[in-house]
Write a structure and sequence with these properties.
This protein has about 675 residues and is mainly alpha-helical. The chain contains 36 helices and eight strands.
């Protein structure tokens, strides 16, 4: 590059005269801007150098939600350290968002004063609901304020409480966990298993369906977050796709300590906020408590549209071009940036003239205006054939993806994969993920914008989609062969989308068990019901019914946790499982019998409860099972107690207490979701 050569030779003024017009023509070229920044700094124009970097950074974030390269950041920090006093704040509101910026600042000041709450920003796709909150978030981060950032994903293969997990792994919060007592770290290890690896002597968390234990788990997560330095700023994108457990915990967090100085910024699509019951109900509660400040973003007007486009192209727009751009984009900032960027390569005139051809498949699968779909598809078409193949695979992953997944699913060697990922990165189509979901995933990547992912996926044929989903599932099984639990939900989803429902069913069951460990019973029920719906695909009747029984047993436990033993849906599910167990010729199932006994007790059907208790004792004698013997006496004791037969009740409850072994507490919880020693009625303790 001539400008670089002139700079090296000390001809800084000549280099500047050459570089400034080039930077205007190529506003997203980082290498070019680094040379320009060095030249400006060398001429003693440090503030212009700083402003040049910050304009580049904001353009990258606005256009592709990407950050500058590490080399650019190092250069920026080096120039900053040589600067004594800044003329003003570097973080300015984006085009057309001055009023919204002031509201966010006011909300931050309120939270910093000790009133924790949620600042919810809603708007349609591409409206900028991520860009300027991230700009605000980045400004607080640069000031040394504790911050953490995460997002939710639409894919069904998500993990319960995944956003909270990512917050916990952020530097601001992870480094503060050391200050927590062991009792809370044990609970947090449900989401951060690496805490157990760091200290093998640490007690492992027990699995239980008791609501009090779930509240203790939520308290542990809240204490972990609030242990970070305050004021604390948390950002969560795409709140509309949050799982129910994350929403419930966020509600708990905002109420946990009314004196905490915490602001949670959430972004969401308005139509999803209304149509998704868990999110809609959650918002109603927050509104009633005054814990949410809501802001709906509108589109830019014609003048603001022109201003944003001029920032992108670093040039003025004539009136006709500005009006045409406004008509084409309707003031949507993402579309403005994409069309302005396309115009740099000669694509805007073609789009303005209506020359783009958009297929019916594109219109039906990508929720974008046809011309914008064509703009993004045009960007993807510029990739090499091999890289276009890779971007389809990455889009099929449906979330953050790793180099290992791409390599194993595609079968390409590491060198070729590196070159293809580099091409995608150079073109700002993918970016390194801010923080991997699983601690073992070091080289994680994500798309620079969800709409690029959607278009890339829409370009795949149905056959290719199924193929890629199958290959992704096989890759995940291979990578996580030692412990597939963290990706069990993804495995189930990918096998189903690959047209292999029989292979998906066991993973839905496993995903449900993983969810229940963190008390995400609603998520578990969803997985299990989905697995039950797929059973008709299993050709062998005996195998189909065995799998059905396994899923019914699991869903009954999850329903007990959410609905209570006496709920009709619980009784129906347990009865169906018992009848199926009998039809298969299996011996009576202790878990089902015990659950049916407690369900009968809840509806005051004492005779039925006693019958189930007798069956439990009979099974205990046949199998010589000390745990089952305790459970049988416990069921009979509590049933007789509530039936008013206190003398007979006491006999059985004393038998339960006498045979109870405290070292079996975890086994009782694992098998039956309760420890009988903490659920005895008061007369038994006299």
């Amino acid at each position: 590059m001539l400008g670089s050569k002139l700079s090296e030779q000390g001809e800084l003024e000549a280099a500047l005269a050459l570089l400034e017009p080039l930077a205007s023509q190529h506003p997203l070229d980082e290498q070019l801007h680094r040379v320009l920044i060095n030249v400006l700094a060398g001429l003693g124009r440090r503030w212009e150098a700083i402003e040049t970097y910050e304009r580049l950074r904001d353009r990258l974030d606005d256009a592709y939600a990407a950050e500058p390269e590490s080399e650019s950041k190092v250069l920026y920090r080096r120039i900053l350290t040589r600067t004594q006093k800044r003329p003003g704040p570097s973080m300015q509101p984006l085009v057309g968002r001055q009023r919204e910026w002031k509201r966010l600042l006011s909300s931050w000041q309120r939270a910093s004063g000790g009133t924790s709450h949620l600042f919810l920003i809603s708007g349609e796709a591409g409206i900028g609901k991520r860009a300027w909150p991230r700009s605000f978030w980045r400004g607080r981060d640069q000031q040394g304020i504790a911050t953490a950032r995460t997002r939710s994903y639409q894919a069904e293969g998500r993990l319960a409480l995944a956003p909270g997990t990512e917050w916990l792994r952020s530097d601001a919060i992870r480094n503060s966990l050391i200050r927590l007592p062991e009792i809370w770290l044990t609970e947090i290890a449900r989401l951060l298993p690496e805490l157990l690896d760091e200290r093998p002597s640490r007690r492992r968390p027990e699995q239980t369906a008791e609501s009090s234990q779930r509240q203790r788990f939520f308290e542990a997560l809240s204490r972990a977050v609030l242990a970070a330095p305050q004021p604390l700023l948390l950002l969560i994108d795409d709140l509309q796709w949050c799982d129910q457990e994350t929403l419930q915990w966020l509600h708990f967090l905002l109420r946990f300590d009314t004196r905490s100085r915490l602001l949670i910024i959430g972004t969401a699509r308005p139509e999803e906020l209304v149509s998704t019951p868990p999110v809609a109900d959650w918002l109603v509660r927050l509104r009633s408590e005054g814990s949410v400040n809501e802001l709906a973003l509108a589109s830019l007007d014609a003048a603001e549209t022109a201003q944003l486009a001029e920032q992108v192209i670093k040039d003025d727009l004539d009136e006709q071009s500005a009006l045409r751009l406004y008509r084409e984009t309707e003031g949507n900032p993402l579309f403005v940036v994409e069309m302005a960027s396309a115009g740099l390569n000669g694509g805007a005139a073609e789009l303005a003239g209506g020359g783009s051809d958009v297929s019916a498949q594109q219109l039906s699968t990508a929720n974008l205006p046809p011309r914008m779909h064509a703009v993004i598809a045009g960007r993807l078409a510029q990739l090499s054939p091999e890289t276009r193949e890779l971007i389809g695979l990455a889009a099929a992953v449906g979330r953050v993806f790793t180099g290992d997944i791409l390599r194993k699913a595609s079968g390409v060697d590491a060198g070729r994969l590196t070159n293809e990922l580099d091409e995608l990165w150079q073109r700002r189509i993918v970016r390194p993920a801010s923080r991997p979901l699983f601690s073992a995933e070091a080289n994680s990547f994500d798309f620079s914008h969800d709409k690029i992912r959607e278009v890339a996926y829409a370009e795949l044929s149905p056959m290719k989609r199924r193929y890629w989903h199958s290959r992704i599932a096989q890759a995940l099984e291979e990578i996580y062969v030692a412990n597939p639990d963290p990706v069990s939900a993804q495995l189930a989803t990918h096998y189903e989308q690959a047209g292999e429902p029989v292979r998906a069913i066991p993973f839905y069951g496993r995903a449900a068990q993983v969810a229940q460990r963190v008390y995400a019973h609603g998520e578990a029920i969803g997985h299990l019901r989905h697995g039950l719906q797929l059973l008709h695909n299993v050709p062998d009747q005996a195998r189909r019914e065995e799998q059905q029984l396994d899923l019914l047993r699991l869903v009954s436990l999850a329903l007990v946790a959410t609905e209570g033993y006496g709920a009709p849906v619980v009784v129906e599910t347990l009865s169906e499982a018992q009848m199926l167990n009998q039809r298969l010729g299996n011996p009576p199932d202790p878990l089902i019998l015990r659950a049916l006994a407690i369900a009968a007790l809840n509806v005051r059907n004492f005779q039925q409860g006693l019958a189930f208790g007798d069956q439990l004792l009979e099974l205990a004698d046949q199998q010589g099972d000390p745990l089952l013997l305790v459970e049988g006496h416990y069921v009979l004791g509590v049933t007789l107690h509530y039936a008013g037969s206190f003398t007979r009740s006491r006999v059985h409850l004393e038998q339960a207490l006498g045979r109870y072994d405290p070292t079996h507490s975890s086994a009782h919880i694992t098998r039956y979701s309760q420890d009988p020693s903490v659920n005895l009625p008061m007369p038994a303790r006299v």
